[in-house]
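User: Okay, second chain of the day. Same drill as before: sequence in, structure tokens out.
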Amino acid sequence: MDVEKLAKRLKRKDEKALSELILHFTPLISTIIYNVGHGAMTKEDIEEVTSDVFMTLWNNTDKIQPDKLKGYLCCIAKTRAINKLSTLRSGILDIDDYDPEDDFSLVEHSELKELHHTLRQIIDTLENPDREILLRYYYYYQSTTKIADVLQMNQETVKSKLKRTRQKIKSILIERGYGR
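Assistant: Same drill. Structure tokens below.
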């Protein structure tokens, strides 16, 4: 199966291409969702999240990069699974579910949540076009070529702005006590 060809057809809203991609990727997507869920999701939950992944793909065909479709789907699956877990647990960690032998740590969870919150605050303070470039690249998985085209900029300018923005975020995080 040529996934890149199917992805190109999908960009043209070809429903048959979507059906073929669903058949091809459902085992992988379901496995990712199951693994992220650590057994907390029912079979129906996993099926629901899997459907959401492909619905998201269909609704965002303009963002597809045919050569990166598998990674894009995996990221969507992981995000949707985490969101489903949050809904199931209502944001509360049940201390009875905590196993000290497990690789999950309440401290690590709290630190990651705090870091995520800090990153969102930093990103919110960035000015455009730096903020838009960062979001398009890391959250919408757009290539620097696509970003340059959309923002009517030179690709090298986009790359240098992206690099400077990453350096700026890194230095702010270091100032706030993260990393070295």
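Confidence is low (pLDDT under 50) at residues 91-107.

User: Thanks, on to the next one.
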